[in-house]
Design goal:
With about 170 residues, the chain is α+β, with helices and mostly antiparallel strands. The chain has five helices and seven strands, in the order E-H-H-H-E-E-E-H-E-H-E-E.
Length: about 170
Amino acid sequence: MITLSPLRPADAEAHLAGEDEQLVRWLSGGPGTREGVDAYIRHCEEQWATAGPLRAFGVRAGAEGTLAGTIDLRFAAEGLTRGQVNVAYGLYPAWRGRGLATRAVLLVCRYAAGAGSKEAVIQVEPENAASMAVARRSGFTPGGQRFTEDGTLLDRYVRDLRAPGVNGPATT
C-alpha cells in the first residue's frame, strides 16, 4: 500500500539518504544538499498554501508511511498546453521494482483530474527506460517528442484524464 501526502520538513533527511545517481541524473540535475532540500520543501509548502502550480508529494510506503520517493504535478510548465499537467516522479533505490511508481502515478492522475486537468503528460529522456515503462504501465501513450529550451530531447507520454476509471478509488 502507498499513500501520497505533501512533502514536509521532516522528509529532508530521508530524501537526502535516498538520493542516488539515477535520481540526480533523471530528476534533480545535481546532488542535493540539506540547504537545497530544505529550501525546496519550503517552496513546496508555499505552493500548497497559495494554490500555486506545483503540487509535490511524498510517496509513502507501508503502514509506517516510510518516504519511498517523490512525485509532483506541475499545472504550468514548459511544453504544456492549457488543461495539461506534467507528472514527474522518482523512487529511492530500495523501493524500485515494486510497482510503487506506477501506483503513485495513478493516484496523482486522480488528483489532477479532480483539480480540473484534462490530460497528464510525462516527459522522459529517451535513455530513461525505467521511467518510460512506468508511463506505459500507468496508461500513458506515446505523444511525440520535443526539445527543451536547453536542447534536451524528451519523449512525451500522455493520458486523457477524462477517460473512464481515472477518478476511481483514491487508494492503491
